[in-house]
Amino acid sequence: MIKVIICGIGGRMGNTMYSLINSNPDFKLVCGIDKMADLINLDVPVYPSFDKIEGRADVIIDFSKPEALDELLAYAVNTGTNLVIATTGHSAEQLESIRAASEKTGIFMASNMSLGINLLTGLAKDAAKFLGPDYEIEIIEQHHDKKVDSPSGTALSLAKAVQSVRDFPSPLVFGRHSSNQRRTKNEIGVHAVRGGTIIGKHDVMFIGTGEVITLKHEAEGKEVFAQGAVRAAKFMCGKPHGMYDMSSILGSLYAVTTVTSEKDVTLITLPCIGADSIIKLLSALSDKNVNLDMISQTPVTGCAFSLSFTLPDTDADKAFNCLKAMNLGYEAVRNTCKITSEGAGMAHTGGVAKDVFEQLAGIGAKVFAVTTSETKISCCVEGAKGDEAEKALKKHFNV
């Protein structure tokens, strides 16, 4: 059972956290911290400061305000208690204090605890890379009238994520009330709306000539953030010191989300081929409409390479004819199976390749070739082991 302290238990999110933790059998609420402790009536102790706490916890979940940070960090460091910071609006100096504290205890920090927002961030980065400078970017965030920081931490995170994938300067412009001038081409506009009881809305707009592409996330209830904080607290239990964020959870829980297999595959390997011949061979195969996959190239000498690729068995004879016409030596294995393990979280965690190889070795599957990318591992294995390999990997990664 994970023991938790909620900092800011008297606030809107603190109350939501209290209800969620109390209903979760995996957690036990030790106490709450709130400067208005005398006015809070709950079935757990609530203290006005950390120096009043009796007992220890595994994790502190912070939904308070930036003003509480110094005391929060001091307690976490002095007691070695890991910390989930869900509060936003910290100053640059406070962010540096958080980083320094992470050298002594584990700190999870995210501007938004929603997995959906983190998916939106990845989609926004992909869109920014694909659309390039021809599309202007505007980010609009909407929140309730009680929210203090503006723009939201999530909007800033989205803006910085988009900035990070553009290979040209993209200054952030917050609103445009202070200047009377045209929009500069590559700036990223960030705008805040406050009113009523809006839980949280974030739009990332890619505005081109004659069209607008909008990526949108809307939180329909505070529970989504509380659930994210619970997920983070479970993740942080027992973690060593260091900084963690939502990508850490994505890597841990969603490293592999799909495992697929493709049967009746031929693997062709050319032990030694020159660079010019590679281009001619690929052109010849393209002319015959042969679709290649799992292409890998390894230097052998200063001007020669070892080249391998896979293709459907049905196209194998076309490829063999091209190779013979070019008088190229090759080796081929037919009737193999390509097993692919894929997941966005793979980009944020290590050891996935090790797990894949261990599972394949465990069933005695011979691996003929491997190709990888940031989010994908493809293995060419003997055809007779294809079904068993797919089943083993799906079971291991809980797919």
Word description of this protein:
The structure is a single chain. Helix 2 (69-79) links the parallel strand 4 and strand 5 (82-85). The protein has helices at residues 12-22, 69-79, 92-101, 115-131, 153-164, 223-236, 246-253, 275-287, 316-325, 352-362, 386-396, and strands at 2-7, 27-33, 46-47, 59-62, 82-85, 106-109, 136-143, 172-174, 188-194, 200-207, 212-219, 242-244, 258-274, 293-299, 304-312, 331-342, 367-373, 376-382. 34% of the residues are buried. It is built from eleven helices and 18 strands. The longest helix is centred in the N-terminal third of the chain and has 17 residues, at 115-131. By secondary structure, the chain is of the alpha/beta class. Helix 1 packs across helix 6, helix 4 (115-131) packs parallel to helix 5 (153-164) and helix 10 packs across helix 11. It has a seven-stranded parallel sheet, with helices on both faces. Strands 14-15-13-16-18-17 form a six-stranded antiparallel sheet. It is 32% helix and 31% strand.
Note the topology:
Elements: E1 2-7, H1 12-22, E2 27-33, E3 46-47, E4 59-62, H2 69-79, E5 82-85, H3 92-101, E6 106-109, H4 115-131, E7 136-143, H5 153-164, E8 172-174, E9 188-194, E10 200-207, E11 212-219, H6 223-236, E12 242-244, H7 246-253, E13 258-274, H8 275-287, E14 293-299, E15 304-312, H9 316-325, E16 331-342, H10 352-362, E17 367-373, E18 376-382, H11 386-396
Parallel strand pairs: 1-2, 1-4, 2-3, 4-5, 5-6, 6-12, 7-9, 8-9
Antiparallel strand pairs: 7-10, 10-11, 13-15, 13-16, 14-15, 16-18, 17-18
